[in-house]
Design brief:
single chain; 3-stranded antiparallel sheet; 13 strands
Length: about 325
């Protein structure tokens, strides 16, 4: 029973951030009451091995929807093969001033400048424990907005250490446009220093805990081919376990003329699809299957997901597609595989 087309106009009549919170609370209610089993499509398992992990199916939830890990089980019940929570920072922070989330329905797009609003690592890890979720869980980590850039690596190391025993894999987010100067961590020597430090710590934690938790790097869609090539070389050099392509874009060419086009923040949804696919394609050519690619960005249909997989992705993640299409999108993609 696909009720989402009936619910969407009501949700879209609300302020976007209010709608976000209401939707998550409704999902949680449906899950706790057992109604979810009646409302959501049944999804058969289509297992796939990536990063040494067995995913129930290749369709995941991208980070950003559940920043604090409050709704893990409810979101997993929609049929995702894996769930990624965060971005979480070592210390709680309020994020950017509201309004900071905008819908562009004509373009099937969203602009956000949330700014890593979250309740901090300790809160999130406590919620993970309470969730009872035993599927594949990614924890997406970032730096606090007021941590100086020269100390950014320390924030990521803190995130890695604290999240290590609670995550199936850990994502290093260096590509959000909503934390000042964060994206410079993707450049030149800065990305090399970050990867080197994180890889060394990952191997130390493996020795300490007796098990290995994969690391994935999340990159932007706005990188040049040369910059992507540089990152690909470092992924191979430091044996990083995966790469997520991509985050939101700062480009506005696909929504030029729209009243909201000048709003600051990252643009997601249909307008980022082609740029994201280009990054997947360039990465795939460089990595030659040695580092798996998780594709995110503009996946609003079966064809969008198939395109990402065809050009070299092993897994896909959705976010804006879920907002515009609802849970049926997950079922449709998995069924098509």
């Amino acid at each position: 029973m696909n009720l989402y087309p009936l619910l969407r106009p009501l949700l879209f009549s609300l302020d976007p951030e209010t709608a976000h919170e209401v939707t998550l609370k409704l999902l949680n209610l449906a899950h706790i009451s057992g109604l979810g089993k009646l409302l959501y499509p049944t999804i058969d398992d289509k297992p796939v091995q990536v990063m040494g992990l067995c995913f129930k199916n290749p369709v995941g939830l991208a980070a950003g929807l559940d920043k604090n890990g409050d709704y893990i089980a409810a979101l997993a019940a929609l049929g995702f093969g894996f769930v990624e929570i965060g971005t979480v920072t070592p210390r709680p922070q309020p994020g950017n001033p509201k309004p900071r989330l905008f819908r562009l329905p004509e373009h099937k797009a969203i602009i956000n400048r949330m700014g890593f609003n979250n309740l901090g690592l300790d809160y999130l890890l406590n919620r993970v424990k309470q969730s009872g979720y035993d599927g594949i869980l990614g924890i997406n980590i970032g730096k606090n907005f007021d941590t100086p850039m020269e100390q950014a690596v320390d924030d990521y190391l803190t995130g890695l250490r604290k999240a290590y025993t609670s995550a199936s894999y850990i994502t290093i987010n260096v590509s959000s446009p909503n934390t000042k100067n964060l994206r410079q961590l993707q450049q030149g020597d800065e990305i090399k220093a970050l990867m080197s430090a994180l890889k060394e710590e990952q191997l130390r934690l493996e020795q300490e805990h007796g098990f290995y938790v994969p690391l994935a790097l999340k990159i932007a869609p706005d990188l040049t081919d040369d910059e992507i090539g540089h990152i690909a070389g470092l992924l191979l050099e430091f044996e990083i376990d995966g790469v997520i392509a991509t985050n939101t874009t700062i480009a506005r060419d696909k929504i030029a003329g729209h009243p909201l086009a000048q709003e600051a923040g990252g643009l997601s949804g249909a307008p980022v699809k082609d740029a994201s696919t280009r990054v997947v394609r360039v990465l795939a050519a460089q990595l030659q299957g040695k580092v798996p690619i998780i594709a995110a960005g503009g996946i609003l249909s079966v064809d969008d997901a198939q395109e990402k997989l065809t050009v070299g992705a092993s897994l896909v993640q959705v976010y804006s597609g879920l907002i515009y299409r609802g849970p049926q999108l997950i079922a449709d993609i998995v069924k098509s595989l």
